[in-house]
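Final report, closing paragraph on structural work. Over the funding period we assembled a curated collection of sequence-structure pairs, and we close with a single example.
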Amino acid sequence: QVAARVKSDDEKDEWFVVKVIHFDKETKEFEVLDEEPGDDEESAQKFERKYKLPMSYIIPFPKKGDPSSAQDFGQGRQVLAVYPGTTALYRATVASQRKRKSDEYVTY
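Its predicted structure, as stored:
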């Protein structure tokens, strides 16, 4: 799983936790899948969203089994956080950083 910016409009920045399906070495684009079904506002049907995105729109997560590989973010730093129970990300500010490198980070 990675974080992906799915819209390029700076005013309406949309980021999601997605699964990488394929990486095209020629175009250097990722094909990703938002595994949380979205709502089609017109038909009220649930559907999975796929995107083709450039590398600059992707942020890899640290290795889950190795918390020491996760970057430390200081108090006041702007980060992306996950809305609980969704794959949607929002801008947040770090209130306090982890005490030990062995402390795990949380993803949903």
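The chain has a mean pLDDT of 80. The chain is about 0% helix and 45% strand. We thank the funder for supporting this effort.
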